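The instructor's notes for this session suggest beginning with a concrete chain rather than abstract definitions. Hand out the sequence below and ask the class to guess, before any prediction is shown, which regions might be ordered.
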Amino acid sequence: MNNIRSQKGAAALVASIVIAAGILTIVLSVLFVSLNMRASLFSFVDSIQSFYSAESGVGEALMQLRREPNNFTFNDFTVGGISTVTNFIEISGSCDLPPECQYVPGTGWWGEYFNHSVNHPDMEVDPYPGPTPTPTEHDWFDDIYKTHEQIDASLQFATSMWFPYEGTIWEDQEGFAHDYHFTQHWRAKVTAPADANYGYNLASDDDSWILLDGVVVVNNSGTHAAFTKVGDIFLSAGDSVVELYFAERHSVESGFSFHFDDPTLK
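After discussion, reveal the predicted structure:
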């Protein structure tokens, strides 16, 4: 009987130890989490304080610039125990203008050239897709497809069998007789001598658009054989930005040509 009691007592002791260990583990876990939360809270408070210090610094700098437009050295100041110090570093060199801003009227059209795969979802589509309002609805002119940029003195290319990538390092016929499936974007600063309607001639196979100061004024889009549009575009006296977009999307033909009727438009 005493032996049985001893065993029961030992079992109870072991159970008590296990329960106590479990409770201790829970207590230590809660303490650890609390300490981590406290550290995270302090870190969060420090981040908020740094943010408001930076914001205050910007505000102070702007106020100083309003008072002293030519003074780019700002006073040091402290916010919430954090000091903000200005430090300017002079680097020699020059900032180059974008290509479309580097040339003067009469030098040509700044062009971006893009080459696509026949596997692009907008190429070799049957039945032929119709027109779309703007060229930027498509991804055809994204930088991932751009091969190069160049200045074209004229945009009067061939309206048949025009394949600008053939003979270049970017040529990829993909099993076709020619390098089809490409797009272009040209822009130029056009100077009009007076407020007037100026005639144009636009031919393309396939899509093309004319934009004036960012607005589509001629839409010749869609996959189609060479089609010519003629008409007038109103230009105000002085400089306007004229842009042209073109897309060759089907392995049958290719062509593009554009010009103003008035040769004085440079």
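Then share the key points. DSSP finds one helix and eleven strands in the chain. The longest strand covers residues 182-192.
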